[in-house]
Specification:
The protein is an alpha+beta fold and 369 residues long. The chain folds into two domains: 187 residues, Gcn5-related N-acetyltransferase (GNAT) (Aminopeptidase); 136 residues, Aminopeptidase. Helices cover 42% and strands 27% of the residues. The chain is built from 14 helices and 13 strands. Strands 1, 2, 3, 4, 5, 6, 7, 8, 9, 10, 11, 12 and 13 form a 13-stranded mixed β-sheet that branches. Helix 3 packs antiparallel against helix 14 and helix 4 runs parallel beside helix 5. The longest helix has 19 residues. The termini are far apart.
């Protein structure tokens, strides 16, 4: 069997139709929308790869090839990447496997193609966030072995997938007691959830509060400009939804977004206001519950809670895991993958050794004091 990989810089005419047929095997980050968005934001140019067995397409992959700088990441890394180059390829929710019986062969064919492309184009890093978590093949050990055989390092990751096919009462009872208690308390305290449908409302009620909670008083002009370009990008409003939880006086207590694709709703941009924490208002509990119901009404069968560390290494990671676990979802563990050119790998190890030996530190003014 000889599989053939073809590459296109624009999506083939049937690209999105094939993703629709693949169902929950395919995530948004493999769509032509995502490829065009990354190009519009200057994040890289898309590579649309198809794997064929004769005339039959058995797998698909959208990868983003980027040569963006690493300014602000530390002096040692900037010097290192100047010397050895920083071209990189990244992809998520993929590959999309259309024929499960050929999954390993298709993945290996794609990795071989990427290896040749990396040599020709000076790519130094290839990163994958793994298959779509809702794929039946997520966490497949044989697929992971195909990566490690090609020199990729693996990092375990996980998420919780909530089954939205239950009726509303059964869905509510499937939640842990802590989640149900939080939803009821927020309702009693007058917290309500509101969808945001125009830019000014989204900017003022969602983005600015969220950036203030997560990044403090620093200037947010660049973040707002990027968010504005995403908001205006063709197709965005059909895929993305944003909500806030507010107190009776209009104070924004929490913010949460989601995107909907192939029957799966995936949460993004979760934030909670210090005021909610101080007043012990479980605004995110009510926000998640209302978004489950919104996703159900939109025809979604699954809600992806978007990632937890399988083995929490800090109190923050443990708190995130505890919060997401209480929604009664199915725990799915999978691998993320990274390949680095041997020059970059060797130089990184050397810098780490010298730092440890001599106590060097990056001269990053943002970390001073």
């Amino acid at each position: 069997m000889r599989l053939v990989v073809s590459m296109h810089h624009v999506p083939p005419p049937d690209w999105d139709a094939s993703l629709a047929v693949a169902g929950s095997e395919a995530g948004l980050l493999q769509s032509s929308f995502w490829g065009s968005l990354m190009a519009a934001l200057g994040r890289g140019h898309p590579l649309y790869l198809t794997v064929r067995d004769g005339e039959k397409v058995v797998a698909m992959l959208l990868a983003i090839h980027s040569n963006r700088s690493v300014a602000g990441k530390g002096r040692a890394l900037r010097v290192l990447t100047t010397l050895v180059g920083m071209g990189r390829i990244e992809f998520s929710d993929g590959p999309v496997i259309l024929d499960g019986s050929m999954a390993c062969a298709a993945v290996d064919a794609l990795l071989e193609w990427l290896s040749r492309y990396a040599r020709r184009q000076g790519v130094r890093i290839i990163r994958s966030s793994g298959l779509s978590p809702s794929s039946p093949l997520a966490g497949d050990g044989q697929l992971a072995a195909a990566y490690t055989a090609r020199g990729y390092e693996t990092t375990p990751w996980a998420t919780y997938l909530v089954d939205l096919r239950l009726d509303e009462e059964a869905l509510f009872m499937s939640l842990d007691h802590a989640a149900r208690k939080g939803i009821k308390k927020a309702g009693r305290e007058g917290v309500h959830v509101r969808a945001l449908t125009d830019w000014d409302d989204y900017r003022n009620s969602f983005l600015l509060p969220y950036l203030g909670w997560t990044r403090g008083a620093e200037a947010h002009d660049e973040d707002l400009a990027t968010a504005g370009r995403i908001w205006e990008h063709p197709g965005h409003h059909e895929l993305y939804c944003y909500y806030v939880a507010e107190a009776n006086d209009g104070t924004v207590l929490a913010a949460l977004g989601m995107y909907l694709f192939n029957g799966v709703a995936t949460e993004i941009t979760s934030g909670v206001a210090p005021a909610a924490i101080e007043r012990k208002l479980p605004a995110q509990d009510l926000l998640h519950w209302e978004m489950f119901l919104e996703a159900r009404r939109a025809g979604c069968h699954t809600f992806n809670l978007a990632g937890v560390a399988p083995q929490p290494a800090s109190p923050k990671e443990e708190n995130i895991r505890r919060f997401k676990k209480k929604w009664g979802g199915r725990h799915v563990q999978f691998d993320r993958f990274e390949w680095r050119h041997w020059l970059l790998r060797s130089a990184t190890h050397l810098i780490g050794f010298v730092r440890g030996r001599h106590g060097w530190a990056d001269a990053n003014p943002a970390k001073a004091g």
